[in-house]
Design a protein that fits this description.
alpha/beta; Spore Coat Polysaccharide Biosynthesis Protein SpsA, Chain A; 7-stranded mixed β-sheet; two-stranded antiparallel sheet; globular; binds 2-acetamido-2-deoxy-beta-D-glucopyranose
Length: about 300
């Protein structure tokens, strides 16, 4: 009886040792797997999709300058955290550049790279920028949407500058849009915040100080449009023929009246986007004299 008990104890002790050993061998490699490769895998996992969410088409014109890669890097790393996002980047250039191509490819985002050079004469005359680039994106988008089923077509179009600052919440908000959604924009138009004025859950006016006579005195960052409206209004596009600050009104006039705007961000009481501008960097004379063709900056 006693020998049987001690024999059993030995088995229990051995079993516990095996259990502890298994526990260690199981958890250690697993925790290493979780920590190390995750960072490297991030770009692949960012293209995550959820078929229940409307697709957000971000339309971003861009042009070559010293801080271009820095600005695009910062923006792309915000966009990596947005589900069902398709980034349409349009270069103001004769040809697509390797800098933008590399950045988009390495981002792991779902993207479309386009290019169209703004004509010189037009550029001098008009103050508006990005008109040709946004129109080129809309042309591409219409073709893309036509190739999708009605269900797949559900989406939202957002015009994004490459140097603005976007909180992730602004993307959550815009997925609620039926036609056109609006929200406040921080530090723009000479104001701390430019926004629609809401009365009983409807847009009754705007607080803008800069050109308040505009039909829609809001910034490009302060609204998004249901994608299907661009198919219902194939003529909708931006125009070179208007003075600066009127591009938003030009495009919105195709789709809605002020009363139809859908106030988002808690009835326009929250700021989820800021019209930040990147300061133009200054490179010294000596610095300019040094060229680095082998390194992309
Ligand atoms: C917005 O305001 C309207 C009217 O006051 C209210 O019914 C609605 O619940 C509000 N929405 C949000 C998200 O706070």
């Amino acid at each position: 009886m006693t020998s049987f008990l001690s024999f059993k104890k030995q088995y229990i002790a051995l079993g516990m040792l095996v259990f502890i050993a298994l526990f260690f061998f199981n958890t250690r490699p697993a925790s290493i797997q979780c920590q190390v490769p995750q960072l490297e895998e991030l770009p692949a996992s960012v293209a995550s999709t959820n078929s229940n969410l409307p697709t957000i088409y971000g339309i971003t014109p861009t042009y070559a300058r010293l801080a271009q890669k820095a600005d695009l890097t910062r923006l792309s790393q915000t966009l990596m955290l947005v589900k069902n996002f398709h980034w349409i980047v349009i270069e103001d250039a004769e040809n697509k550049t390797p800098l933008v191509a590399n950045l988009l490819r390495d981002s792991g985002l779902k993207y479309t790279q386009l290019n169209i050079k703004t004509e010189k004469e037009k550029a001098k005359k008009a103050m508006a920028s990005g008109v040709e680039q946004r129109n080129k994106a809309l042309e591409w988008l219409r073709g893309h949407l036509r190739g999708l089923s009605e269900e797949e077509r559900i989406g939202v179009v957002y015009f994004m500058d490459d140097d603005n600052t976007y909180a992730l919440k602004v993307f959550e908000e815009m997925r609620k849009i039926n036609k056109v959604g609006v929200w406040p924009v921080g530090i723009v138009g000479g104001m701390m915040v430019e926004m629609p004025i809401i009365t009983n859950g409807k847009v009754s006016g705007f607080n803008a100080l800069w050109k308040p006579f505009r039909p829609f005195p809001i910034d490009m960052a302060g609204f998004a449009v249901a994608a299907n409206l661009f198919l219902e209004h194939p003529e909708a596009k931006f125009s070179r023929k208007v003075q600066s600050g009127f591009q938003e009104s030009v495009i919105l006039n195709y789709f809605v009246k002020k009363e139809d705007l859908e106030p988002l961000a808690d009835n326009c009481t929250k700021v989820y986007v800021w019209h930040t501008r990147t300061q133009k960097p200054s490179i010294s004379k000596a610095g300019k004299a040094m060229t680095y063709n082998h390194i992309e900056v």
